[in-house]
Predict the 3D structure of the following.
Amino acid sequence: MSKHSITAWAFVVSLVLAASASAGAPEIGTYRTGIDLGNTPSTGCDFDLGGVSPGSVPGFELEATVQVDSSQIPPQVLSAELATCDGSGFATPVALSGVDLELNTGFLDADSIIIAIPASVLAGTTSIRLAHYARSADGSEDILVSSDGTSRGGAITVALTLASPAPTLSAMAIFTALVALTVVACRQIRRRTWASGSIIVLAVFTVAAAVVQAEFSNQVASDPTSDASQDQPRAEIFASFAMTSGSGVLLRLDIEDLETPPAPTPTPTSTATASASSSPELPTATATASASSSPEPPTATATASASPDGPTATATATATASASATPRTPVLTCQTVRDCRCDDLDPCTIPRCLRNDDTGLCMCVFVPIPDCGG
């Protein structure tokens, strides 16, 4: 194999490796929650709000930090830790177990980050105050430090009932009880005791509904949508929830979308070139026109002409393009309707954004205005 062949192969391999590395680059978002034990802002450490005003809020004894890699499918928790205020800042972080991600089940179909704070670190307090900070991989930031997400809202507080936890049934015990009630109801109906059977069936559905609603029914704060610094869904906070039990407190932070949307498919272009020359001595004029290969591509035409003018030869070229008057319907992949943005500079069309909930695809439809421009 020649030296030039080896060099060419090495160049190709390096390109492939570079493309593979860039394709698998992590998209790490950071999500922090400050916890004020006893709701006493005068003690504790400042909770950093990054580049979002007012920059920090005082009085927090604990800080939980979760890092999520959104480049993986589904997103994965990379790390979770709980740090304690030592008077000057949050230090001595320890690994935090019991962190989970739930996708598309939160407030307004948001993705949820669930953190379990054990009762042992809550120091027997009866209430806590919360503050939240989110930062996506591209630097977009959002905060939630008040109950309504505005400067006028009150503090985010959660009353704790940890001292005397009520006895609860395990998931298996609840399932067993529901099965037993269902069996009894079927027997009653077979014996044609419809009244008692119907009552038992109603009880089964009531218990099942109560079990579902018991999880995170307490929304402690909500945040205005579209207020992240760069309008990035992986940093957009929607709401905060809390649920207490004898083992501690569960905190849930709802983020608009932790999942990385697929990269848009580039639209190929077609190019047509026309050349004309009247003689070898005359210059050649070239005109080029490009047209996008969208579902309703515009038509493009190119003309070129060259003509001598007295003793001096001149060449001219013109190019024209015309678009079809029918609606253009490019399809965009999106997670929410907010991701589907229709930009239209044509004064004779009206943009409309539609979303198919079954496929998750958005469609920008440009409807022509009758008799416009004519």
Observations:
- Confidence is low (pLDDT under 50) at residues 18-23, 163-168, 204-214, 269-335.
